Amino acid sequence: MISHHKKSEDMISLEGLPADHFLFASESVGEGHPDKVCDQLSDAVLDACLVQDPHAKVACETAAKSNIVMAFGEITMKGKVNIEKTLRDTLREIGYDSKEKGIDSDKCSIVINVDEQQQEIASAVHIGKKEEELCAGDQGHMFGYATDEWDKETLFPLSHYLASHLCLKLAELRKTGEVSWLRPDCKSQVTVEYVKQKDNSIKPLRVFNVLISTQHDDKVTQEEIQKVLVEKVVKSVIPANLLDEKTVYYMNPSGSFQTGGPAADAGLTGRKIVVDTYGGWAPHGGGAFSGKDPTKVDRSAAYYCRYVAKSLVAAGLCHRVQVQVSYAIGMSDPLSIFVDSLGTVKEGMTDYDLLHVVLKNFDFRPGSMIRELKLERPIYKKTASCCHFGRMDPDFTWEFPKKDLKL
User: What CA–CA distance (Å, rounded) separates 263 from 34?
Assistant: First the structure.
């Protein structure tokens, strides 16, 4: 069912939904969304720095509005990076090569305000320290999550996996030229009907509804947009067995969406932290990822918590799990570690047992996390184009579970 307007008669009644069933929605945004643009710009600068100096200390924020991009923050490194060129090249790669699309990569104004890392922070974190002595670059708490609800490889929430891949598919169709009227800005949202099973694990049953809003040119009709989004995007991403006659499709429900990107809305690094992680299935500590080198535990520890959570589920020790860690600036050892299987721990074990498995097998000190996951590589721009998790890219080392855990 394609819904053209948000009318009450278009909505599917919740009557008849069994007590052990529930609906869960996750949203994602495409690489041309203003906030995601800024995430990629910040991480493009980070990657450029890491190419020159794998030990570069980077905290780069980006803001964009209309035809202006601002990059600001702190960078300390060996070598030099042409930040302006990096920003323009990244805008062009995303697809923003004209003002009509949202911003002109060649003609937009670039403002750069970057200093070196503050000396007191540098002294507390890394100066004069061996790798194993490297300290957290800030305080904070980070989370990781994994679930075996639908597969044994990604171990990632299905609702967010689908939402993320809808946006990735839109980018593919646009960049290959298969759908010529697509423009870079887009968003998606998928609601999945789940059942909670007796062992507290969950299982997705069907897609309840799908929402896509995508920027387009002025030559395409709304009827064509809706048809293409359902046939070439939704049905190529969402398995047919999850779609049925009751699934509702909201395709560009606001109607015309010609003005997008920074021309329509201001963008800022770090405003899509739930899109970046688990689509609402797990808490988030509050710290964003993009533009931060791995000494910033906001990023490296969040990646490591995902690695730990995925390792526990992959080992069959639980069906779902949340892992939390916390730090103080200037200290290497974490202040706390928390493990919650959400009631799905393997029979004969407890969450306390899982915590001890974590302590036996994983080292949460910043230097150790960076070494184990090889986080000093220039791999970050592509993490920022979509979700940082649930993508089996060889460079995403945190997505490959540790095997043969000591119990």
Answer: 9
pLDDT in tens, 33-47: 999 999 999 999 999
271 as an active site residue: the answer is: yes
- Both tokens of 204, joined, read 């997705």
Task: Give, as one character, the DSSP assignment of residue 13.
Answer: P
Residue owning tokens 């209309």? 66
**DSSP states of 160-179:** HHHHHHHHHHHHHHHHHTSS
Q: Are 113 and 72 in contact (CB under 8 A)?
A: yes
Rounded CA-CA distance 362/404 in Å is: 12
Q: Respond yes or no: is residue 106 known to be catalytic.
A: no
Q: Give yes or no: 298 in active site.
A: yes
Q: Does the active-site annotation cover 404?
A: no
Q: Which position among 257, 289, 364, 396 bears the catalytic label?
A: 257
User: Which of 265, 363, 372, 376 is the catalytic position?
Assistant: 265
Q: Which of 61, 185, 193, 276 is catalytic?
A: 61
193 is catalytic: no
Q: What is the pTM of this model?
A: 0.95
Query: For this structure, is 33 an active site residue?
Result: yes
**Residue 403 known to be catalytic:** no
Strands 68-76 and 57-65, bridge-based pairing: antiparallel
The per-residue pLDDT for 2 is 62
Given a cut of 50, the residues of the chain with pLDDT beneath it are: 4-6
